[in-house]
């Protein structure tokens, strides 16, 4: 039997504080299945980078533990990292060297043949800039080089912290397509962090939302879409709203008085015609009947803002 | 070996690289100009080997200036990593932190040895050049006192090891080059100013200055300096290794 639930990244009750008494992370439980593209979302200072640093063993959690590829990460588990490519915040680049030399340094440390270096340069579209000094690179070019360094070991797991930072729209689309390809063809599991849902919604299969060090949502992208649908309403306005409320309640349509209009919780599309005929037959004049779907972005924001207020 | 090679790549086009060569040239060139400008004052008494005096000046120059250059070289080599914010990257590669620490330290020692060797190659070459260019200085009439020179080289190298290890630690931990170098130079200054105080041998930065006016008869190794140096080296190696592998966050 195929184990579809094999987790590549799993954290269990991970907490971390930079200073005593103030936790930057609080009981974070990440679960990232094999082959997933996991969008890790949260506003500035949410703790995304801190979480990623813990995953990569750069910081030790004060509580809980991390499993990568099903193995516990400890102080000496460096060999796990031969399967992981990562890019944290701004890429670590030696600006006085050429792009090629930067790649060669990591390739040498990782024992990767030189042919792979030219390969990754081509993948990120920097072939003709390999011999240029990195200090002359633009922000987007540096970001691409950082991505090339992460891709060097042909990793099974890619951990990318805001990789599209500084990229132009074409660049963003290129990266997105590259990541989709890696996931589809090579089964690479990808963790990608971002502030913007819109930026990664065409890419991800799973979503985790973090705010103020706490996980607020985690699940498949479909789950998030369901939440969005549950938040949709039908706005109704008639000449006799009091009667409309009674009618709707009698017919089991949950209704409430909104700011301007009556609001009915949206369940399915047949509801619209049912409500319309109900009101028309009763002789009411309908002024407004509109389905209001909240966007994914609004859903995302509403999840974050629920805990945003003290 | 591959790790060591990557360190070499990182040094390309850096000031640290040029400093290793130019710094080694500095004192020998200073001596050359002194011997050329006031040749008469340096003409040796009949039958005296001029190399002894010349080498002693080279040694003292080495004590005085090389230590500063060495601090700067260490700072610059580590600054390459600090500037690139590359610790976080290095630590996520499949190499242990201990290896990163040791390779870097070995590389720094290799650079320092290169620096010292270059310094003496330049100095001896200049002496030989003076031998042909200014025959009255008699450099070509006498042999180079090899034992004297190698003994100094060995003792001098031993004397700077604790300082190098401490300076390595400081430069690892303090990202700002001015601060780490400042601390090093301060240490050296204290060591120089109080070089005659009997207890100063317990101050690691003072060791190189104990080699001032080096004489064969007063060999450094025979005294307890040697043991103090070993003790300090082991102590600071252990402390900095522990700090780097366990606590350093990069
Ligand atoms: N080196 C540090 N020392 C002390 N506090 C820190 C440090 N780094 C981060 N923090 C704190 O930890 C919290 C989480 O920061 P983190 O960098 O993980 O956020 P983030 O989600 O990556 O934000 P962004 O989207 O801006 O990158 C913040 O409140 C921040 O102030
Ligand atoms: Mg961040």
Automatic annotation (TrEMBL), chain B:
Keyword match Plastid: no
Xref: Pfam families: ABC2_membrane_4
Where does the source fall among the domains of life?
Bacteria
The residues that cross the membrane are 15-38, 58-80, 101-127, 147-170, 182-205, 225-244
Keywords from the named record: Membrane, Transmembrane, Transmembrane helix
Q: What is this protein called?
A: ABC transporter permease
